[in-house]
Amino acid sequence: MAYFTPSNFEWGIVAETVPGTTPATPAFLRFVHKEGDNINPTHDWYEVDVVRQNRASNGGRRTNIAAEGSLSTVFQRGPANEALLLAAIGATTFTSNVAKGGNAETSFTIEKALSATAYQRMTGAMVTGWNLEASYDGGVEVSVDIMGRGITNAATKIAGATTGAAPSTQFLTGREITNVSLGGLSGMTYTSMSLSITQDRETINGFGTNAALGVAASSNRKISGSVTFHREDFTPETLLGDAAVPFSFTMGAAANGLTILVPAVYCKMPTDDTDGAKLYCTVEWEADLDATEATDIKVTRLA
């Protein structure tokens, strides 16, 4: 008996024209993943609560079957990463290399190839979270949370399906994070940062089937994050008050670069932390709608 080898797994994503339906001849975008990424079925459990003879157990039934999972990578510009980021901010495309947060909905089929004869496919998959963590001495780590209608298993590749090549751009590290600015704090020595885009979703269900009929947003998008820098003075307390300020940074350059602007964020009070010879200051923030940009986030491709 042959066992699956996780280091051989491959992932692909393709946007669906009809939510929940894989295109007839899908052109999957290859997603360069980390070991440990998975998609799994989810369900509720109805426990039958009748009284039976001899106090026998009654078992239960599966209800509200759906799917959840996560994909993670070290960020590099490429079609799959761009598609997932656009979906996270509610946009569908870049216009003149710019995409703004909106309310567009994109569903995907996500395929996990375990071997040449074993495939898992999540349909109707939608992004519920896009999370970035970066530090000066590490990679630009991105994880994407997914909710879908369900998972099917197959022994064959979809007829006519193709999977694109992995991006050839470099994986980004802290050395490629530049131009960090939080409300005028552009001259600080930044050491780490985070950015989280969350869109709560829930499945749509009804009589006649256990499967989810759809996945829908259940609240507004929430964008939050933090930055950490070397404490030099009390400028953060002076500049970061109760008014909204912009936050922006660039990662990478040219064809492997993006600038992300969160035009209006409200900052929590700075806090300090000591690590050996270093005194760090951290500021957490949450985004708001900016009237000038008419959005809460803007992503610009550098080329």
What would you say this structure looks like, in words?
The chain is mainly beta and 303 residues long. It has one domain (6-42, 62-301). The protein is 5% helix and 49% strand. The protein contains 2 helices and 20 strands. The strands form 2 sheets. It has an 18-stranded mixed sheet that branches.
Please describe the topology of this protein.
Elements: E1 10-15, E2 27-31, E3 38-47, E4 60-74, H1 79-89, E5 98-100, E6 108-115, E7 118-135, E8 141-148, E9 150-154, E10 162-163, E11 177-182, E12 190-198, E13 201-204, E14 214-217, E15 222-230, H2 235-239, E16 245-251, E17 258-267, E18 271-275, E19 278-287, E20 298-301
Parallel strand pairs: 2-10
Antiparallel strand pairs: 1-2, 1-6, 3-4, 4-8, 5-20, 6-7, 7-8, 7-9, 7-12, 11-16, 12-15, 13-14, 15-19, 16-17, 17-19, 17-20, 18-19
How much helix is in the residues? under 10%
Number of discrete domains: 1
Main β sheet profile: 18 strands, mixed
Residues in β-strands, percent: over 45%
Compute the number of helices. Answer: 2
Radius of gyration: 22 Å
List the helices and strands in order. EEEEHEEEEEEEEEEEHEEEEE
Specify the structural class.
mainly beta
Low-confidence stretches: none
> Could you say which overall geometry the principal axes of the C-alpha atoms support?
globular
End-to-end separation in angstroms reads 49 Å
Q: Give a count of the beta strands, DSSP E runs of length 2 or more.
A: 20
